[in-house]
Design brief:
43% of the residues lie in helices and 19% in strands. By secondary structure, the chain is of the alpha/beta class. It has one domain: Flavodoxin domain (Rossmann fold).
């Protein structure tokens, strides 16, 4: 089994990438295995709200959109033992590509599949500038994950002010999360 790390940032050298790397370092140091998905390297289309607003996602637990990477990424969530989501903060919220992924997963999960029910998840929001949007971003992300009955075990804001102590703390958070 492995821990799935999903991160969504166009900046591969920024705060979000640094946070993701520290979590991976912590998990790896305990002997854990990690599968990493960088959403910005994948194509995720927006939900079409087909038919009457609910298509095959409600009746069959799958999406009709087949020309993107959604199905493979969804399978990665299902096969993971635990999940870590790391996102930059855009306007007090998660990134648009992460929203597209979670919106489509939520539709399949809440009405049909329930494959992710009870999976443990660690969520991290990385905010530049003032960092004021990090807490709202974590709230919004947890709210969406709760619809899928994913168990959020911790919410970690990483901002410019706390960067110096939070990045090393993420190594320890990765260790604890893997061993929980």
């Amino acid at each position: 089994m492995h821990t799935l790390i999903v991160w969504a940032s166009p900046n591969e050298d920024g705060l979000t990438a640094a946070a993701k790397n520290k979590i991976i370092e912590g998990i790896n140091s305990t002997g854990g295995k990690v599968k990493e998905i960088h959403l910005n390297k994948h194509k995720i289309n927006s939900c079409l709200a087909c038919e009457d607003g609910w298509g095959l996602c409600r009746s069959e637990g799958r999406c009709i959109i087949e020309d993107d990477d959604f199905a493979d990424i969804y399978k990665s969530f299902v096969s993971a033992e635990k999940i870590v989501i790391v996102t930059p903060v855009y306007w007090h919220d998660i990134t648009e590509n992460l929203k597209c992924l979670l919106d489509r997963m939520r539709r399949s999960e809440t009405k049909h599949n329930h494959f992710l029910k009870g999976k443990k998840c660690l969520i991290i929001a990385c905010a530049g500038g003032s960092g004021r949007g990090a807490i709202r971003c974590l709230y919004n992300l947890e709210y969406t994950l709760n619809h899928m009955e994913i168990e959020v075990v911790d919410r970690l804001p990483v901002i410019q002010f706390n960067r110096e102590y939070m990045l090393p703390a993420l190594i320890e958070a990765g260790k604890v999360f893997f061993n929980s």
